[in-house]
Known about the structure:
Blueprint: H1 7-15, H2 21-32, H3 36-56, H4 62-80, H5 86-109, H6 116-138, H7 141-144, H8 151-156, E1 163-164, E2 168-170, E3 173-179, H9 187-201, E4 208-212, E5 219-224, E6 250-255, E7 260-263, E8 271-274, H10 281-292, E9 298-303, E10 320-322, H11 325-348, E11 382-387, H12 390-396, H13 403-408, E12 414-420, H14 430-434, E13 438-441, H15 449-452, H16 455-459, E14 474-478, H17 484-487, E15 491-493, H18 498-507, H19 517-527, H20 529-532, H21 534-537, H22 540-543, H23 553-556, H24 593-609, E16 614-615, H25 621-627, H26 631-643, E17 647-649, E18 656-658
Parallel strand pairs: 8-12, 8-13, 9-10, 9-11, 11-12
Antiparallel strand pairs: 1-3, 2-3, 3-5, 4-5, 6-7, 6-15, 13-14, 14-15, 16-18, 17-18
Helix pairs in contact: 3-5, 3-6, 4-5, 5-6, 10-18, 11-12, 11-19
Amino acid sequence: MGEKNTADQQHEDQLRGSSDAGGVGKYLLHRAKPHLPPWLGMGGVLGAAALGHWKWADAPYAGAGLTLASVALTGATWWAGRTTSRQRQLHSAITVAASSAWLTAACLSGPTAGPIDDLYWMFGPTLALTWNVRMVMRRNPEAASGEDSDKGLLAKVGLARTKLGNVKVEPNKVSVPYALPAGEGTNQDVSKALPLIASALDVPASAVRNRPDPDSARRGTFTVVPLDMLKEVIWYPGPSSPGGSIAEPLVIGVYDDGRPLVLTLSQAIHLLVMGVTGSGKTEGAMDVLCEVLTRRDVAVWLSDPKRGQDLGDAFQACDWVVEDGAGAEIMIEALKVAVPARQKWLGAHSYRSWEPAAAEVQNDPAHSCQQGTACGCPGMPYLLAWFEEAANTLRATDDDAFTGIAQEARSAGASLVISMQRASGYQISTDTRASLPSALCFGVDERDAGFALPSEVLDAGANPGAWGNKRPGYCYLVSKGVDEELWSTPSRTFRNDPVSLEWVTRAFEPIRMGIDPVTAAAAASVAGQLYTGRAVAADHDEAAPTVEEGEDVTDSLVDPEDSGIDPEAELPEAEDGDDTPLVAPEAGRKPSPEEARRLFAEALVEFERNGQMVVGPKDFMDWCDRHQLSRPWVSERLKEAAQDGRLEPTSTTGRWRIVPALTPA
Length: 665
């Protein structure tokens, strides 16, 4: 019924009719009917004047009564029109005032007395025609197409003179092009008005977005998504391309209009994953890793300070896993060596950038390190270095630890993923943040939104601060290969759990090609035993003690020598001599310079054996106390060891990387 009452539908009804004489008559009647009421009203006023003159021509009280009635009718008309437009209110009040004034004069003097009849025939048709003109102007094709629609709403938000284009209606999405008055506003003014527009439409703030025209400072497109289609949880449907290449897109969720949320890592992408606790950041990490670990030509290095609490089921599918700050520090140093080694290999095999063919055995003479013939070298898979909870890593190193890797790894077939709750200037350097152009941003604190997303995305209506941890999984993806229109479009990652991650890890383990010799040799040259012994070190299940059914766990933890001690018995009172050491301490002795250097070399070997490949003076504090040596002396020995090639300086002042003996990877 609502559609039947539109102006366009009424106009179509008026134009209906056949082309014969009867049809022409119907057409003229349909055209005339909407315009008859003002003329009928004009005739009614004339009839009322004749009847009133017959009734009150000689009545002395009629003048006062008719005047009061005219004023009351005009006031009532003005009051009744307060909910309409100001133009309609004024037009109605003037029409009633003029008609009632003429009616009063005609009732008292007669419709034909003096100039009364002349006034009627001059101004009566004029008033009727003004209403006819108003009715004709009411059907505005430009307004119907969207040019002037919702002017009242735009006026409320300070965009009254904005011109709107044709409305494009899609399922749960309305798009309207706009053009601000030339010289009176910019797209930034529109961005500032988005929250007010959302308020006027009574929708969430993230439901109204603005996509500026890159070629104009005053043109763009409004997008309104009235219903939140992301409320329903969508479980991870399984790998999007099992056994495929990492070059194929990773499907990790959906946008609010139903389109898939797609990330392509192999386009030299370095990714910042950011979100507060409870925002669904870990679920998003599982989605990405589930997709990555089902591809055949990628190797993963993972730093997880949470020690497998969430991502532990992915450990066995990764080439290398570290679980503490010292391990993350050496993994960063290994990446610094692996990146140029990978660049050299790609260049030697005529690859300007990594591509899936680089991961296969090199049987193509066009990609050979031997001129004129295929070299048959093993392929080089893509390398993904993932640093979970990277704030811990940055505290153990420095805020600029990732900058060099991020700037150089793009041409080496490697991507860097840094996951953290806050990417503020206090935790990560501006150079590193600038080297991470892609972002997967979940709910954040409103004050941190500027660190997570580019300013143009926030201006377009993106608002991760509105979610916080109240919308787990809701996110924005800003990345190369993603349409810029989607950068400010809310999306939601799939719901996942460790069962899915474990299933993916085990089911697709046979398809993964593993690390290449070049990258492995580079990592071993830096990390030594920490890398070459990684398979044994990561096998937590073998080290876990077993408890037989019914066995008292506390009994298995008691030393046999203490088995006869009653834990409930009172301790004896202190006696003289209890604090006397059983063995007298040996008198202090400072080693000779030759012996001190030998002890220092043995200390480096011990650090290497324990997997601590990055050291500094603070790591020798207990050692200095035992051997009565000072920290400045250790600093000098560190410099000498660096000159001898036993140590390499790191990007952190006062930290040195132990150069291990060559070991097989």
